[in-house]
Design brief:
Layout lengths: L2 E2 L5 E6 L10 E4 L7 E2 L3 E11 L1 H8 L15 E2 L4 E9 L11 E5 L2 H5 L8 E5 L4 E2 L6 H4 L3 H14 L7 E5 L4 H12 L4 E6 L4 H6 L4 E4 L5 H4 L7 E4 L4 H6 L10 E4 L11 H18 L5 E4 L6 H12 L7 E6 L2 H12 L6 E5 L2
Parallel strand pairs: 11-12, 11-14, 12-13, 14-15, 15-16, 17-18
Antiparallel strand pairs: 1-4, 2-3, 2-6, 5-7, 5-9, 5-18, 7-8, 8-10
Helix pairs in contact: 4-5
The protein binds NADP nicotinamide-adenine-dinucleotide phosphate (NAP).
């Protein structure tokens, strides 16, 4: 039997044709643009918390307009957001993994992010594959903060590094959301040595996450502090061409890896020519890796139930902390302040929006 959608949520929206900073967002009633019928695998979540990732800032600025599609259900509006925690209020006919009343967390499908069907809403529709039941011991704010950065760093560690056991690593951007995850997961998975960079204000925080050496990038040079350390991996959570060019100074002479989550120019708009340039650059870097130069890997993360469950388990075991920078109210001003904070690039933990 077809189930009807019964929800009247307000959501953060921008006009699909409008690009810019936080000023382009406002909170609107989005019930007119929702579907009437719930799909068989759909799950409606009454949102508790969501987080702000740099992706939302980049999408708002139009940096990836080339990859965008549709607009929230072709309405002309776009709802941002990827991470969620909340309570299931309705399920489609084929849903078996979660039930009404379950508290869940997760990151929505990448296609939903690029079509503007995001999580910055009082209620939102996702699919059961993207929902993980939240342990009762995990607070809802922590649950709403971690999915995207967990998926990203787990992908780097499991897929690109082949596991962290015994590895010697530099994390560039140790206080970033992805960097904080990486340090803790690597240490929990048996990394032999994890160094990390951050500015002075975040040194104590990054030390508390288990980094063996913390380098203040505003007064120290990691290429000097780590010279001759023969690292296995440089994991770059900040991006920038100089990190790639300098990584051979600290990596072991052959088979070292440079793994980045952000590209050479993190501010560049994604266009056909940029993508072609990136592909060409990657092929060139891979070619030289056969002659002893470091291997080059650009992380492409997407939701992964196994990876998220692993991170949730580490949190339950007391092996992983989720650091919160700030929590902002679900008001137009609150959401704009949250976006501005992340756009400033000097947060100390995750920036959250409390929805209910
Ligand atoms: N490829 C993918 O699938 C994927 C997935 C997720 C994210 N990303 C990208 O990865 C990047 C990181 O995302 P995130 O959420 O981790 O970022 P974030 O939490 O917003 O990063 C902010 C942090 O970066 C630190 N930082 C800024 N400049 C630095 C520098 N030069 N050296 C060291 N640390 C620096 C800041 O520390 P200080 O204040 O101490 O400077 C701050 O703590 C973004 O570009 C994002 O778009 C890619």
């Amino acid at each position: 039997m077809m189930k009807e959608v019964d929800m009247k949520p307000r959501a953060v929206v921008r006009d699909a044709a409008q690009y810019g900073g936080s000023e382009i967002f406002s909170i609107q009633d989005v019930s007119p643009i929702l579907p009437n019928i719930l799909g068989p695998n759909d799950v409606i979540v009454k949102m508790a918390f969501t987080s702000v990732n740099p992706a939302e800032v980049k999408i708002a600025h139009g940096a990836v307009r080339f990859l965008e599609s549709g607009g929230a259900r072709n309405s002309g509006w776009r709802i941002p957001g990827a991470d969620f925690s909340g309570t299931v209020t309705a399920i489609g006919a084929n849903v078996t993994k979660v039930a009404v009343g379950d508290e869940v967390l997760g990151e929505i499908a990448t296609s939903s992010i690029f079509s503007g069907n995001g999580t910055w809403a009082e209620e939102m529709i996702t699919q059961e594959d993207y929902c993980l039941k939240k342990p009762s011991t995990m607070p809802s704010d922590i649950a709403g903060a971690l999915a995207m950065v967990a998926h990203t760093s787990m992908t780097a560690i499991r897929y690109y590094m082949g596991g962290a056991g015994g590895q010697r690593v530099l994390v560039i951007g140790g206080s970033s959301g992805t960097g904080m995850m990486a340090i803790q997961i690597m240490k929990a998975h048996g990394a032999a040595f994890v160094a990390a960079t951050c500015s002075a204000k975040n040194v104590a925080l990054v030390q508390s996450l288990g980094a063996d050496l913390v380098i203040d990038y505003t007064t120290q040079d990691w290429t000097i502090e780590l010279r001759g350390k023969d690292l296995d991996v440089v994991y770059d959570c900040v991006g920038g061409r100089s990190h790639w060019y300098n990584c051979p100074k600290v990596l072991k002479p052959s088979w070292g890896k440079y793994i980045a989550v952000a590209p050479d120019d993190p501010d560049a708009d994604v266009s056909c020519s940029l993508l072609l340039g990136m592909v060409g650059g990657s092929i060139n870097r891979k070619f030289w890796s056969f002659f002893g130069h470091p291997g080059y890997y650009m992380v492409q993360s997407s939701p992964n139930a196994e990876y998220l469950a692993e991170v949730v388990r580490l949190h339950a075991d007391g092996k992983l902390k989720v650091v919160i920078d700030s929590v902002h109210p679900f008001t137009t001003e609150g959401v704009r302040a949250a976006l501005d904070k992340v756009a400033g690039r000097h947060t100390s933990g995750k920036v959250l929006i409390k929805i209910s």
